[in-house]
Amino acid sequence: MDRPSSASLSSAPAESQALAASTVRPTTEVSAKSARRRFTLSYKRKIVALATGLPAGEIGALLRGEGLYSSHLTHWRKEIARIDARTPEPKRRRKPDPARAEKQVIDQLERELARTRKRLVQADAQNKVVRAAGSAEQRGAAMSALSERVGTVDTTMACAGLGLSRATVYRQRRSKASLLAARIPPLQLTSAEQAAVLGELMSPRFVDHAPLQVYATVLDEGRTLCSTRTLHRLLAAQQAVHERRKH
Fold this sequence. Notes:
mainly alpha, elongated
């Protein structure tokens, strides 16, 4: 039997090393975390719709074919039911009525026309007031004309055009009687009461007493004439603050 030559023996390890290097070994590394499947809402609705009405055996075949569990189908049915319950039904809109739309347009135009007419009336009245003003010497006539058109003329705009003070216009509109009535205090003494108080002050008993002494003495007697300030004011009106014997 022939023995292998030394050359063939030396080349055998080299061939085995090359064969081992060229062989691709499968990896045995385990990934740290597997990728989780994600299901869209449309896919869930599709599976639930397909499973509706199928017998139990065919539902299992459907789930096995999709790689799903029965718990998936149970949870998806509840989820879709909750979503459908929250989604309101679309409201039925009323069909547009051409006559109603036309009426709304007409009403809007009528309102705009009324506003325009009102502005024209105010502008006309203001022009009359401006023409009546003429110059600075005729402001009295302008204010009289403005007072006669109260309610038809915008006072602010008219005063701005005439260079008048609104406070002056409003003050002249109010009568002197109303001003006096507004200034009269509610607790003011009447003429008879003022005469009675002056009689007490001018009496021989209190003619030499100061108003504060008179007030205290009368208060001890259980009476009240008026305040000490009013006593001073009544004496000042009679010029009898310092000396009352002459009166």
